[in-house]
Amino acid sequence: AQTVTQSQPEMSVQEAETVTLSCTYDTSESDYYLFWYKQPPSRQMILVIRQEAYKQQNATENRFSVNFQKAAKSFSLKISDSQLGDAAMYFCAYRRMFQGAQKLVFGQGTRLTINP
Amino acid sequence: GAVVSQHPSRVICKSGTSVKIECRSLDFQATTMFWYRQFPKQSLMLMATSNEGSKATYEQGVEKDKFLINHASLTLSTLTVTSAHPEDSSFYICSARASERGNTEAFFGQGTRLTVV
């Protein structure tokens, strides 16, 4: 079974600075998707960024980028120019691409605090 | 992104009663819907996966007779917590996908906070 591990329960960063959230996963498959979701205090899950495992290029969405290391099974999220609105729980997630149940497997989450 | 609406957002019920939570995809047809449970300060735990017109697939340890899931149409899935007890109090979240497989995104509802008193 696939597992996703976020080893940082909490992180904090000064506003306008850069922060990196870590995520590792375990799978025997070669094709899959990886995601970062944000859950603000409203508890609405919001997709931040997505990476297809077959793509070598790291995904980028404005201030959000990932460092995808397939061999190391690592998928970290970098938030540049942190803003107060970035404060939230961040979940890393894995999903199979082809065979079997294509459900999301979530990590434990990292609570990000932005200091003004 | 597409919109998934969950109703109610909050519900309080008495112990022993049943409560129904609705999950609707407003602007797309959802072949597959997922139901999650989230305890305070914890991650989302998948309870079950439902495909339109077929029985839900429950995760190990989830009581299917207690958490009844119905996915009768391509835009609506319901979760009924039967004979609710205080330990069922939690935050329940649904998500919906346009198809079971392939390169389609899952969109989340806003969640339902259930309190059993």
What is this structure, in a nutshell?
Chain A is 0% helix and 52% strand. Chain A has 116 residues and is mainly β.
Helix-strand sequence of chain B: EEEEEEEEEEE
Beta content of chain B comes to over 45%
Point out poorly predicted stretches of chain B.
none
- As a whole number of angstroms, the C-alpha radius of gyration of chain B is 13 Å
Helix and strand pattern of chain A: EEEEEEEEEEEE
Helical proportion of chain B?
A: under 10%
Q: Give the number of helices of chain B.
A: 0
Proportion in helices of chain A: under 10%
Mean pLDDT of chain B: 92
Secondary-structure class of chain A: mainly beta
User: Radius of gyration of chain A from the CA trace?
Assistant: 14 Å
Protein model, in words:
The complex is a heterodimer of chains A (116) and B (117). Chain A is mainly beta and 116 residues long. Chain A has strands at residues 3-5, 10-14, 19-21, 24-26, 32-39, 46-52, 60-61, 64-69, 74-79, 88-96, 105-106, 110-115. In chain A, the strands form three sheets. In chain A, strands 2, 5, 6, 10, 11 and 12 form a six-stranded mixed sheet that branches. A four-stranded antiparallel sheet of chain A has the order 3-9-8-7, with no helix packed on it. The mean pLDDT of chain A is 94. By secondary structure, chain B is mainly β. In chain B, 0% of the residues lie in helices and 52% in strands. Chain B has strands at residues 4-7, 10-13, 19-25, 32-38, 44-51, 57-58, 67-73, 76-81, 90-97, 106-108, 112-116. Chain B is globular, with a radius of gyration of 13 Å. The mean pLDDT of chain B is 92. At the A-B interface, β6 of A face β5 and β9 of B.
Topology:
The complex is a heterodimer of chains A (116) and B (117).
Chain A: E1 3-5, E2 10-14, E3 19-21, E4 24-26, E5 32-39, E6 46-52, E7 60-61, E8 64-69, E9 74-79, E10 88-96, E11 105-106, E12 110-115
Parallel strand pairs in A: 2-12
Antiparallel strand pairs in A: 1-4, 3-9, 5-6, 5-10, 7-8, 8-9, 10-11, 10-12
Chain B: E1 4-7, E2 10-13, E3 19-25, E4 32-38, E5 44-51, E6 57-58, E7 67-73, E8 76-81, E9 90-97, E10 106-108, E11 112-116
Parallel strand pairs in B: 2-11
Antiparallel strand pairs in B: 1-3, 3-8, 4-5, 4-9, 5-6, 7-8, 9-10, 9-11
